[in-house]
Design a protein that fits this description.
The protein has 9 helices and 4 strands. It is an alpha+beta fold and about 200 residues long. The protein has a 4-stranded antiparallel β-sheet, covered by helices on one side.
């Protein structure tokens, strides 16, 4: 007899890949079409150049869930690996790429892989699933931080650093009226972290 928990089944099917906290890994291995390795390499160079431009970083920020990505040609130019770390559901992650400039770049890069239907094709997810191999081990350095939280933390840090650099803040540190606040362990820790 099977026990039931009363949980509502997910609308999305189970997807491969390991997770650590809010972060999930995605790794695909494809076969490069015969004679396409040099063209793939050229497209990857163009992708790397584009990655340095503002529009690609803006698209990555628009997607808002991508921690990192890697592209590797291996096995004597016969195979290609794409690996990334992302937040959220696998399906949303794949869908999001098709809606930005990144999707067009993915189409160009993966067009050199056997059987790739195109990132906007209804069969794209099935194709990615067929190429995907879950990691045996996946560990994130910050498993409880989403990309959005990291962006926010960075903005807060920049704002706090700007406050620390003002004459008004230095005057507040010297003001005897603030001595009680300055002596609290929380404020001392804040100052220590800012100095680190």
């Amino acid at each position: 007899m099977t026990a039931t928990t009363g949980a509502t089944p997910s609308a999305q099917p189970e997807r491969p890949g390991r997770s650590d906290g809010v972060c999930s890994e995605f790794t695909v291995f494809t076969k490069i079409k015969p004679g396409h390795a040099d063209a793939l390499r050229e497209d990857l160079v163009a992708l790397a150049d584009a990655a340095a431009s503002e529009n690609v970083h803006a698209a990555v920020r628009q997607i808002g869930t991508l921690h990192d990505a890697r592209h590797v040609i291996f096995d004597n130019d016969t195979r290609f690996m794409f690996a990334s770390v992302f937040d959220g559901s696998w399906d949303t992650y794949i869908d999001d790429f098709a809606q930005t400039v990144v999707g067009a770049r993915f189409d160009k890069v993966f067009s050199h892989s056997e059987g790739f239907p195109g990132v906007t094709d209804p069969g794209a997810k099935d194709w990615f699933l067929a190429q995907q191999e879950p990691a045996e081990v996946f560990v994130s350095a910050y498993p409880d931080l989403t990309v959005q939280q990291i962006y926010k933390d960075h903005r807060v840090e920049e704002a706090f650093e700007a406050v620390l650099d003002t004459a008004e803040f230095r005057a507040a540190l010297d003001n005897p009226a603030n001595a009680e606040l300055l002596a609290t362990p929380a404020f001392q820790k804040l100052l220590e972290e800012a100095a680190a």
